[in-house]
Amino acid sequence: MDRPTGAVVRTSDLVKTYPAGRTRRGTPGTPPVRASDGVSVTVHRGEIFGLLGPNGAGKSTLVRQLTGLLRPDSGSVHVLGHDLVRHPDRAARLLAYLGQESSALDELTVSLAVETTARLRGLELREARRERDTVIEELELGEIAGRPLKKLSGGQRRLACVATALVGERPLLVLDEPTTGMDPVARRAVWAAVDRRRAERGASVVLVTHNVIEAETVLDRVAVMDRGRVIACDTPGGLKALVGDDVRLDLVWRERAPLEVAEVAALAADAAMSGRRWTLRLTPQAARDAVTAVTGGPAFAALDDFTLATPSLEDVYLALGGRTEGLVKA
Ligand SMILES: Nc1ncnc2c1ncn2[C@@H]1O[C@H](COP(=O)(O)OP(=O)(O)OP(=O)(O)O)[C@@H](O)[C@H]1O
User: Fold this and answer.
1) ipTM score for this prediction
2) Domain 245-310, CATH among 3.30.70, 1.10.3470, 2.40.50, 2.60.120
3) Mutation test residue for ligand 1: of 30, 59, 176, the one with most atoms within 8 Å of CB
4) Coiled-coil ranges per the record (predicted)?
């Protein structure tokens, strides 16, 4: 897609270290954590930009700095040309932020929470109510619009919080795991609404996720984070090209792998093993040979299931040396 090149977000060499935990006499404190370790990212206008990585990679720390909520130790953050390290108060006019926890509006009904947020973002009463009604319909919140947030299920409450993030037309939406706890219908409604803000109003979106499937389908570009650093940044397709033509072979054994079969023993060295599941990255020819070996010979009786797939972002992540814990597949 043709996009204007203007940067909406530009961070340069951000460093943030959380200080060491306090020690009680005789007990060791927690060490300091460098949660941002020289992070430079640029988000363009009209782009859905993802931050992907396992728990503790530094995604939330980064978005809290680019929303002016957390001051970096060093480095710069510019949003639409405004220096948010110097002027964090300007963030409220430039962006809407949905954090992981959002309990400030818990006492209000869904409808009032959305309307109040719209008013706080400067809309006149009539306009605020019009936007409220639009977003409530868009996210199919009508049935629960009259109920207080604190009495909703986790997924419903999250959806109501997304609704508050979408009113008031901010040019930048920063969403930290927006679809946590939602069912597939709600998730689809959220992605459609986010995409509409981008397509119809040119909004830009920074989206934190550790859901690999979600990342592949909705994001234009992805920064892969690990231990406070961006270890790769590209389109999902560009990232997948890093792992070349390799395919992924998953083998699931009924009880245990038949290591007495020579072909299976040969595969063991390169397999990432998780219980009864082996995962291998192989060239297409090697994968064909492996499938022939495990489905044709004596290994077949021990095999429960197998799948052959083109690379996913998870494979990219592994190839880059990342850790898999916390990367969710569903
Ligand atoms: N307030 C804090 N004080 C001390 N350490 C912190 C604080 N907040 C985060 N950390 C640490 O900083 C690192 C990065 O945390 P952060 O929340 O940014 O990760 P994340 O990628 O958003 O993780 P998750 O996917 O679990 O939300 C982690 O090691 C975390 O334990």
Assistant:
1) 0.97
2) 3.30.70
3) 59
4) none
